[in-house]
Amino acid sequence: YASVRAGLKYGWLPPEKAMLYSHSPELRLLYMTYIDDRSIMSLNYTAGWTFQTKKQWEGTINFSFNTENLRDSLELTEDDVFVPPGEYQFFNFEGRITTPMTQPFFIMLTTMTGNYFDGKRLSVNTQPTWNISRHLELGTIYNFDKLNFVERDMKLNNHILGIKALYMLDTRLSVSAYLQYNTAMKGVLTNLRIRYNPKEGNDFYLVFNE
């Protein structure tokens, strides 16, 4: 496919006594076409607002209008829940809030709701992270997705639980690991990555995926 991305953003720095440190509205466009005939594959308009408080809380609110043109079925779970080919237009909302990342322990919470192709969607994602020391970072991920295609009598409730760890011996050597369980796939995904950076511009990676 071929794609075009564009964005427009303007920000303010409120007065000294204001609760907000900065905030800004923005507009984004994502346009994707099929290579063979340049027909539309996906078109997304997003209007949003981001902010940061003086205590380092961060947040985002986005409203999106989507046009999707599926040539083939979009399979969400094998031989069970899918979206048939066709053109779809739908709105959705996304909100995100992050506690101060300057603290040893912080949480990112994201929610998305609204239409999803010819159905409805509710998603919640939470990511607590704990910086135990300057060498070790631990975190968990929990994601819940609820999809309901009423006219086609299809439903999907999916849970994803993940555990991640990052160990940095120094600026040259780091090891990261991720373990995830997905209820829809009924399977476990694992990832292990070792990165060695002897000098800037030179990186060696050893990656294991299952």
How many helices? The count is: 0
Approximate shape: globular
Low-confidence stretches: none
User: Helical residue percent?
Assistant: under 10%
Largest sheet: 12 strands, antiparallel
Number of strands: 14
Task: Give, in spatial order, the strands making up the sheet with the most strands.
Answer: 1-2-3-4-7-8-9-10-11-12-13-14
Mean pLDDT comes to 94
* N to C succession of SSEs: EEEEEEEEEEEEEE
Distance between termini? 28 Å
- Supply Rg: 21 Å
Estimated structural class? mainly beta
Strand content: over 45%
Written account of the structure:
- The protein has 210 residues and is mostly beta strands.
- It is built from no helices and 14 strands.
- The protein has strands spanning 2-9, 20-33, 40-53, 58-70, 74-77, 81-83, 86-98, 105-116, 119-131, 136-149, 154-168, 173-182, 187-199, 202-209.
- A twelve-stranded antiparallel β-sheet has the order 1-2-3-4-7-8-9-10-11-12-13-14, with no helix packed on it. Strands 5-6 form a two-stranded antiparallel sheet.
- A hairpin with a 6-residue loop joins strand 7 and strand 8 (105-116).
What is the gist of this entry?
The protein is mainly beta and 210 residues long.
Summarize the SSE layout with pairings.
Blueprint: E1 2-9, E2 20-33, E3 40-53, E4 58-70, E5 74-77, E6 81-83, E7 86-98, E8 105-116, E9 119-131, E10 136-149, E11 154-168, E12 173-182, E13 187-199, E14 202-209
Antiparallel strand pairs: 1-2, 2-3, 3-4, 4-7, 5-6, 7-8, 8-9, 9-10, 10-11, 11-12, 12-13, 13-14
